[in-house]
Amino acid sequence: MPKKRTSLLDQAVSQLLEDLADGIYLKQLPGERTLAERLGVSRPVLRSALEILENQGWIQAPGPNKARVVLKRPEPRNEEVRKIGILVPQPLPQLASDDVVLVTSLMRYCEEKGWRCLLFPIDQWGPQHLELRLDELLETSPCDIWVAAPLANIRAFGLLHQRGEKLIAIGCTAVSWNFGAIQYDLDSANAHALGVMLRAGRKNIIRPYGAKRLPDTVERTAKLLSEFGISYREDFHLPMFDGSREGFLRLLDSLFAQTPRPDGIIIQYIPGISALLVEGWLMERRLRFPDDVSVIQIGSDNFLGMMHRPVDHYTTDAEPLLEATYSALDHFFTTGECLSGNRTLQMTYVKGESV
């Protein structure tokens, strides 16, 4: 066996034994893909490590349901290990740049405090399997508290909350929570962006929504438009789509087929939907910003630097979210009290050349 593979195998065995000792897997191990991602090794290396643990009697070889059952655990270490589950929408390389900084910095902070972090990219489970996978997760990898990072599946937050789990949601959202949330003020940023476009002379401004419109959002939009003498049309100014990339592009096709066509687009960045996507769509139709259409993005992402011109956008910097999250976690592990209510942070407007 090559030396590198041997080293990775030793690390995988050591980490699995440590996880067993810490009680991360109470009754059975999660699937191979989840374990391989968590340990940062290939599946062949993982299988070799699991075979060693099977031979040593720590776990049972997979049965008919392919689950590996925990037979015994090493003696736990003297200190109590705090476990934090971090829910993210996608694996780290697929997240927006600000979100990568947020998650990796949070994990580093937890490790420095001696807490164990477990990362779960939950959107890849699919909506039809979400509840089942979450129940399996709570069975195999229980955590003291869960941190739901930006743009992770909102339904997952609610399911964990229903099951009595401690939860802190962090990120950019306008949803009303029944549990603690640290969030950027998305609605105020959207209202400010609308004002920027109106003052620039744009009138047919669209702000696509992949979730329900909140009453406050509708009222603020209608009021701003009326101040500029524009009659508010809900399905035009705040159109709805299914949250998918394809649904977003279909919506653009439909709205730009109307007369008058949109002359401004405010985009809330979510994975797959960004100002870069809009730029490509406009180029196919021989349109460009800001001459034909103004574009403002709510949120930062990896793609802003790839565009032909700097885009006006609102930052979702990680540092304010991190400081608030560190404080909430420290408070929880010191007092047992979990953050409740909303802590709202303001976004910063970055002027570009797209309005």
TrEMBL record:
Protein known as: HTH gntR-type domain-containing protein
Pfam families in alphabetical order: GntR
Domain of life where this protein originates: Bacteria
Ranges of residues in domain HTH gntR-type: 12-69
GO molecular function: DNA binding; DNA-binding transcription factor activity
Coiled coil residues, start to end: none
InterPro entries, alphabetized: Peripla_BP_I, Tscrpt_reg_HTH_GntR, WH-like_DNA-bd_sf, WH_DNA-bd_sf
Keywords linked to the UniProt accession: DNA-binding, Transcription, Transcription regulation
